Structure formats: structure tokens, C-alpha cells
Amino acid sequence: MALEHAILVSLLEQPGSGYELARRFDRSIGRFWTATHQQIYRVLRRMEADGWVAAEEVAQDGRPDKKVYSAAGPGRAALADWLREPVEPETVRHELAVKIRAAAFDDPAALISEVERHRESHAALLARYLHGEQRDFPDLTALDTRQELQHVVLRGGIEFERMTLAWLDDVLATLRRLAEDGRGRADE
Amino acid sequence: MALEHAILVSLLEQPGSGYELARRFDRSIGRFWTATHQQIYRVLRRMEADGWVAAEEVAQDGRPDKKVYSAAGPGRAALADWLREPVEPETVRHELAVKIRAAAFDDPAALISEVERHRESHAALLARYLHGEQRDFPDLTALDTRQELQHVVLRGGIEFERMTLAWLDDVLATLRRLAEDGRGRADE
DNA sequence: ATTGCCTATGCAACTCGTTGCATAGCAGGA
DNA sequence: TCCTGCTATGCAACGAGTTGCATAGGCAAT
């Protein structure tokens, strides 16, 4: 389990309320670790009870009060411990891969529009990454440690999306070829 | 949720018992969808109750009896329906990316051995993929529909591992550079 | 005026997934 | 001989994650 740790990293980069964290998880961090506001609120309360984070009530006008959290000493220590633990193997859930193998027992052509939609969303994400890179890292020769590490993670995201786009093109070409062949021959 | 569907695909490719499925999920299918034997047994019982799979008791000598499952008509229909549904966005859990960003608040050098271990396991997986490709697809010009689809998924796995290896090398170079700089300058 | 959306937090109920353990016979090695 | 490990299935308990709903004030558009 590492939601606690993802939250700690986010709070170290910038303190914030549960709600703000939830939005960050929808945007930047969410590319590497997803979480709903429910999980975040629950885990934040547990972390506060354990002394990992400190909370400060902030009154706002025109808006509900919010509790701004920041990482506390024990939280940083827990994060350092976690860093030194070996990563547990990631549990993979690659739904599209399952669907592609499933298509062999149905009509491969039925998957084409699905894969195309997938391709669009990956192309959009790549564009957002590249835009974010230009915005947040205009000068790649003058980065501090934090930015260096953020950037190497971003490079990973960019390369992943490029690889995925190329593969989805490969998948589409394969599905289209099979659909052609299927029309040419008798349906099996 | 798609464990049902992953099981259906596996049973369509080859009928088998819960135990055999669990082992397949540890090996081939498990690259795209992980599951423990507990999940598999539970879901198989539900699928049998729903008529998605048919079970046949098989007596064995020297071993406990096993129930061999195979996909039934309603299961195939459910799979076809699922193929036509849009994929829900995958929930991403990229622990290493979180750790890399976390390293900014600790010692980046502490991550190096961790990333190296990661790199080794991805290199080993790539080797296994390439070996499996040679074994299962010796003649790429004579593939039927099922093999074509299996192969395009395998190509995705291979490209993913290649991309990951290149990125991990990038990460290692970055961490080592930061560790050098950290020794040169004062610790912050 | 009403509708809908945004900020901000939370409860309750549920499903999904993991972990530990149990059974039970057989095979192989120390 | 005892211990370990493999096949084969399963129960029970727990923790993680999701979904639906509730509150509650403010803002903007219809």
C-alpha cells in the first residue's frame, strides 16, 4: 500500500486540503497513482491520527472552511523508510490486451473503434505532457533536485505514451488486416 | 471489472481447472491481468452459477479430483457484449514513479539499488518474452487470427519492456548524477 | 427564479482483492 | 523418517477501493 506515501509526496511538494489533494490526484499525480476523494479523506484522517501530517483549520469567506494538511516529521521518516523498502511487484490490469485476445473469439473488427478511441486519448495525453514540459521546465539546464526528479518521471510518461501510440497503430493495422481477410474468406 | 472476462478468454483458449487457471495467471495472462487462486475460485463459482462456464468433474489418480471448466454459450455472449463496451480508464499504480518524486525529500542515492533491481527484472522479462516469441511464433508468415492477436499483444509487451529499460537507464543516470552533485556540494 | 456547477467534507454500504489458514494425498530428498 | 513441496480446493477475516448520497453556501447562466 502506498496511497499514504503518494499523499506525503504531494504534501511535501505543496501543502493542501483533502479537496485540493483530490484534484491533484485527478491531474498530475493521478498519472501515477489514482485515488478518489473518499480514499484521500479517510487516509488523511488516519495519517493525522498517526502524526504523519499536521492539520490547520483555515477559514475562508464565501467558501466552507478547509483543513490544510502538511507533512510532519514522522511522515517524512515513514517516507524515508518506505523508500528503502523493495517495491512490491505491480499488479497489472491491462484491459485492452485482454480484449484483443478476446477478439479472436468474436469479430476483430468490433474492436477497431474502441482502439481508435484509446489512441485518441493517449495522443491527447502525450500532447498535454509535452505542453506541461514546456511550461514547467523551460530551461532544462537549470533544474534543482526536485525538478530533475519530476522531469525524469515526466520523461517516462512521455516515452510511455509514445510507445503506446506506436503499439496502438500496430494493433489497428493488425485488426484492419484481419477484418479484410475475414471479408475475403468465409466467416469461421 | 474484468476478471470474469480474462478467465473466459483463458478458458476459450484452453479449458482448465481453477488451479490451472491460477497458474496461467501467474505466467502468460498474468502479464496483463493478475489474480490469486482465491479470486479465481470465487469468480468461477459465480460464473458457473450464472451459466457462463460449464464444469466437469474429472477424477485423477494420485491427485485430488479437479473441476475442469470451459466457456459456455452465455459466457461467450457476455464476452462479446463486453468487447463492445468502452474500456473504463485504467487505474494506474506506478509505485516507482512515486518513489522517484519522493526521493527529492530524502537521499536520491538511496533509490539506486532499488531501480537497479527493477531494471534486472524488466530485462529478465524482456528476455522471456523474446524467447517465448521464438518458441510460439517460429513462422510469422503463417499465423491464424488467434495467433495474430496473441502476437500483437506480445509485441506490445516487448515494446513496453524495451521502453521501460531505456527509461530506467535514464532514471539511473539521473540519480547517479544527483548523487555526485550531492557529494560535491553541501547536503541540503 | 431556478437550475446547475464548484468548493469542501463526510457517512454508509458495497465489492474487490489479499492473507492466513485448513484439508489431504502423494512424491522426493536429507 | 521427517520435512518440504506440489496438486487441488476452499473458508474466514480483513483491508482497499468504489459508489451513492448528504450537507451547505456561493456563483453564474438561463
Question: What can you see in these coordinates?
Answer:
Two copies of one chain form a homodimer. Chain A has 188 residues and is mainly alpha-helical. Chain A contains seven helices and two strands; from the N terminus they run αααββαααα. Chain A has helices at residues 3-13, 18-26, 37-49, 73-84, 95-102, 112-136, 145-184; strands at residues 53-58, 66-71. Chain A has a two-stranded antiparallel sheet with strand order 1-2. In chain A, strand 1 (53-58) and strand 2 form a beta hairpin. In chain A, helix 2 (18-26) crosses helix 3 (37-49) and helix 6 packs antiparallel against helix 7. The interface between A and B is large, with 68 and 69 residues. Chain A binds a DNA duplex (30 and 30 nucleotides) through residues 1, 3, 17-20, 22, 35-39, 41-42, 60, 62-67, 91.
| Largest sheet, spatial ordering of strands of chain A | 1-2
> Which structural class should the secondary elements of chain A be placed in?
mainly alpha
SS strand fraction of chain A: 5-15%
What about the largest sheet of chain A?
2 strands, antiparallel
Shape of chain A: elongated
Residues in helix, % of chain A: 55-70%
Figure out the total of helices of chain A.
7
> Unreliable runs of chain A, pLDDT <50, ≥5 residues?
none
**Helix/strand order of chain A, N-terminal first:** HHHEEHHHH
Largest interface: A-B, 68 and 69 residues
Mean pLDDT of chain A: 90
Radius of gyration of chain A from the CA trace? 22 Å
Number of β-strand runs of chain A: 2
Oligomer: homodimer
Report the end-to-end length of chain A measured between terminal Cα atoms.
46 Å
